[in-house]
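Milestone 3.1: sequence recovery, worked example.
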């Protein structure tokens, strides 16, 4: 289930110098997720965060902190405590099929023990190579890399 298909998948991997429990909390507690979920200076608001199979994952974002626009409307497919989260935006939080812009995807976040902390991986799967290519052209590595860096800064700062 975790095989990487270079024609259809994109991934960010890094070692985060914090325990898996800290990263899990940053992914599953709304107040913590808001601190890293979108690239700064944009502000995130977590509207619904239910990290269990079928649970909603809905966020908004704002440039000015007052007016928020939709950002993520998806559901969790899988949640294994402190180990793995899988969500997709191909089904929205009301369980209706969705055609989200700019791309439909399924993201798998895995956390594994590492001698320096946690081996963190965000694997983003796309249905077609064209969707994967479009996501990369739109700045996947900058965007997901930026928020992964913000996540690492948050949890590493708490544990140092």
């Amino acid at each position: 289930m975790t095989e990487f298909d270079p024609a259809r998948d994109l991934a960010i991997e890094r070692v985060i110098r914090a325990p898996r429990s800290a990263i899990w909390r940053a992914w599953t507690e709304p107040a913590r997720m808001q601190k890293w979920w979108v690239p700064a200076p944009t502000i995130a608001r977590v509207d619904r965060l239910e990290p269990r199979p079928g649970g909603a994952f809905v966020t908004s974002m704002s440039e000015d902190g007052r007016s928020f626009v939709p950002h993520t409307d998806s559901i969790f497919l899988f949640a294994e405590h402190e180990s793995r989260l899988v969500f997709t935006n191909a089904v929205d939080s009301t369980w209706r099929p969705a055609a989200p812009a700019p791309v439909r995807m399924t993201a798998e976040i895995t956390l594994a023990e590492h001698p320096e902390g946690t081996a963190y991986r965000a694997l983003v799967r796309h249905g077609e190579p064209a969707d994967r290519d479009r996501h990369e052209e739109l700045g996947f590595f900058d965007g997901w890399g930026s928020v992964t860096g913000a996540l690492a800064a948050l949890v590493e700062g708490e544990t140092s």
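The longest helix spans residues 140-159. The first strand starts at residue 9 and ends at 16.
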